[in-house]
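Inputs:
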Amino acid sequence: MICIFVTGGTFDKTYDEIRGALSFEDTHLQEMLQSGRSRVDVTVRTLMMVDSLDMTDGDRELIARSCVECPESRIVITHGTDTMVETARVIAAGVQGKTVVLTGAMIPYAFGSSDGLFNLGSALSFAQVLPPGVYIAMNGQHFSWDKVRKNRETGVFESL
Amino acid sequence: MICIFVTGGTFDKTYDEIRGALSFEDTHLQEMLQSGRSRVDVTVRTLMMVDSLDMTDGDRELIARSCVECPESRIVITHGTDTMVETARVIAAGVQGKTVVLTGAMIPYAFGSSDGLFNLGSALSFAQVLPPGVYIAMNGQHFSWDKVRKNRETGVFESL
Amino acid sequence: MICIFVTGGTFDKTYDEIRGALSFEDTHLQEMLQSGRSRVDVTVRTLMMVDSLDMTDGDRELIARSCVECPESRIVITHGTDTMVETARVIAAGVQGKTVVLTGAMIPYAFGSSDGLFNLGSALSFAQVLPPGVYIAMNGQHFSWDKVRKNRETGVFESL
Amino acid sequence: MICIFVTGGTFDKTYDEIRGALSFEDTHLQEMLQSGRSRVDVTVRTLMMVDSLDMTDGDRELIARSCVECPESRIVITHGTDTMVETARVIAAGVQGKTVVLTGAMIPYAFGSSDGLFNLGSALSFAQVLPPGVYIAMNGQHFSWDKVRKNRETGVFESL
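Outputs:
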């Protein structure tokens, strides 16, 4: 059993056709799991719906506390890519004995040609087999939280 | 470094608009890896392009031999779902000390709302971390080759 | 007010993931009108759901009779491309004083990159402004029923 | 022969994955015509690539002048929906004896489930058959430039 925490990020951005701007509405996670024909036993909980650049220290504390308090020992977190590594650090400081995998997307799922579906399949798979620890799963790869950075110019996650 | 062998299956079916029928042309694998922003170091080789119901014993021998002969010790195989378990058995009989993960799709990638991208992310991830053995990665899960069957009525892979 | 008759064809083909084959289920027409944000006042009626190569003389009589009997004087018919011209001829022989526009698709709407949405927008528009007669709207163009043929090799409708 | 002028608008908005924001790059028009299997004889010219809320009086003068100076007597203009009616008025004041059809989209074409393809099919069709005048083609309908407004709350174009 895997717990999935939704926090927003590009993963879940949508297009508000009345305002003509990007926005957050409901998460696309259930739709994505269905599209992927996933049969992984999951619980989904939306903790917040924010751009990760707007995420506060309080938000990160809430995420870490949710990881500690949930009964599952395997956790996937969908998260904006810009501060994913920062949140991973806060989780690593507060969570013991659980496998936590953060993932996200460069292109919103709602915009068709997305990396979100690929990353979700990847994150769910890593979460099932990796030993306890805090990881980032992006670009088909996994990284320990303290050995990775996002290259802002290419949008790619790289080993430190 | 992961070797990806393409063998066809629903994963790569396309729509022939002149004949008005399903067909196989080139694989969509490179396009899918690009769409997923994959940075996994892979070699892609198309072994055949067939519906897995039309796959012969000779085809399966070729696949197993290709697994033995390739320099990589981690392998992903895209394959039709109908006889995926059968091919896995032939590979298990002939290949030692390598991690081989078979995957596929219920809906062609070319038809938009596909499980193929999700499964590819999943299979590449399992292939990076599972110990040597022959596995099937479908529905976000992994199964040892000898502990799984495809339920023909639901289209879902189930544990034996 | 426009009456839309659905008869099947590539336009509405879908992928049956259990059988791994093309099939017909419900029409996608309402979904397409919604996706196109259409505000045209329409009535939609499914007359049949067949590949136009399987269409019988009886089917064509039913279509022509439906055109005569419906209260609307402007009609759009979705139809398989292979025998669209043949059906147009039967309608032209039996229907007077109405604007009837047949349209279809080379790629199923369900397969993402479809010409169906483009053709539907085109057919609905021609149906609103053309004088009484029987027309085929394909490839962004309109043709009188007796001055067009489908080029089977290119899939394009051409003037005679 | 139809001349298509591209001016930007939601129609052509794309998602900049490095900045995580909406942006304009190249027009998708040729890709859309190809996706629609259009065989209409067209010339495509990009005049500007702007959000219609940012369009200046000078931009509108350029559009009107381009309509006058192009050799074609039938013209389609892709345009943001917010000030489409305003631009239509400027064109109507300056262009005589030509059929000019403005169209746009509520959802960017790049975001998958777009009304842009439907509207493009519609606008090209109206442009082929309507008498000289300046029109707006949205929601499957056509309106004379002086008898329409965009309802900002519903996103729908309505008759005055």
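Remarks. Chain D has a mean pLDDT of 96. The longest helix of chain D spans residues 116-129.
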